[in-house]
Amino acid sequence: MAPIPITIVTGFLGSGKTTLILNLIPQLPHTYKIALVKNEFGDVAIDSQLASSAAISGVQELLNGCICCNLVGQLGDALESLLKDIGPDRIIIETSGSAFPATLAMEINRLGRETGNYVLDGVVVVIDVENWKGYEDTSYTAKMQQKYTDLIVFNKWELVDERKYDDCLDRVGDLELQIANVKSDKGRVDQSLLLGLDSALAKDGDSVNGGYSKDKPPQEHSKDHETEVEVLSVNLVSEGDKPKSVDLDALETFLLSAPKDEVYRIKAIVSATRAMASSSGDIDESSRSQPGVSIYILNWAFGRWTFTCSNATLPAPIGVSSSTASTVVSNTHETILRMTIVLARGEASKWKSRLEKGGMIQQEGEGGFLMISRVI
């Protein structure tokens, strides 16, 4: 069984974490099961709101303390209970009071190594622009802890003037770290940015592309989200009698070269003759018993990635055209990679050009028809 991805959503009380989660749920497939672990103080409203959502399959509460500190020991029991009783596709941990989630992230990594049941997908910090005064601690230790933050979501920015928002950006800059950040659209951030790709989402074609396609005009997406990120859609179709496999060495070169302040997320379904090691060095053991070409899910998030065996399928190619090649597909052509790249604003053209030059996404043995289009 593939490990369950865990997303941490943290931020101070009232910053808008619950709103962010509630706005995330409608963006997911109806069959997608989310479990929530939370340790919010005095927040009764969230329980009734979450209980009314069919997408929330279970809630575990860890109260009377900070989950990042004295409740870390209880986290394993809470996760095990959700795994046994619900079997969720994803677990979201919502915690208040700490802008430095390093301890919690390290505990999830430890539990993941010991049990093989969990993997940290991302750490999201929500900041209330209207009321946030900046980090109280900007020491070396604080900077080390803040490295575990993958994405900062600026919430309630529309309630302040531009000067106040710029001041907030300056306070984030006090830590002198390059951390991806976006503005929410009244508490909403697109799921393609918040969540990586997993087995359940891979079964839904729209989720693989982050909900974007050429058939869905940009104006149908959140206007604010359009200004915050840019999205590339990448497809690789096999050529000739070469192995129907992606060149994993070239792909790893791409993953290692992607700065996390320029490239936010890379999600892909990949056909390959072997498993590629994750960024931690682990290899999906289930792939060792499957000779030949297998399908894998690549989930790259802010510099980390996993590569897991999957029963997902790749769509048949309907035609091939790119800046470098054009052909009519036949029975010998197969889609061997379908990828979505979510980038910071202003980065799409540069990375499209880099990928089209070759050497990063290609068929094993070199070649393949590479198609890259910008959808936002």
Question: Which key terms come to mind for this protein?
Answer:
376 residues, alpha/beta, 7-stranded parallel β-sheet, 6-stranded antiparallel β-sheet, 12 helices, 15 strands, globular
What does this structure look like?
It contains twelve helices and 15 strands. It has 376 residues and is α/β, with parallel strands linked by helices. Strands 3-2-4-1-5-6-7 form a seven-stranded parallel beta sheet, sandwiched between helices. It has a six-stranded antiparallel beta sheet with strand order 11-10-9-14-8-15. The protein has a two-stranded antiparallel ribbon with strand order 12-13. The radius of gyration is 21 Å and the shape is globular.
Structure described in brief:
This protein has 376 residues and is an alpha/beta fold. The chain is built from 12 helices and 15 strands. About 11% of the residues have low confidence.
What portion of residues is helical?
25-40%
What does the overall shape look like? globular
Tell me the structural class. Answer: alpha/beta
Order of helices and strands: EHEHEHEHEHEHEHHHHEHEEEEEEHE
**Care to count the β-strands?**
15
The number of helical segments is: 12
Mean pLDDT: 77
Major sheet details: 7 strands, parallel
* Beta fraction: 25-35%
Distance between the termini: 34 Å
In the sheet with the most strands, the strands line up as 3-2-4-1-5-6-7
> Spans with pLDDT under 50 lasting ≥5 residues?
42-48, 63-70, 212-226, 320-330
Q: What value does the Rg take, in angstroms?
A: 21 Å
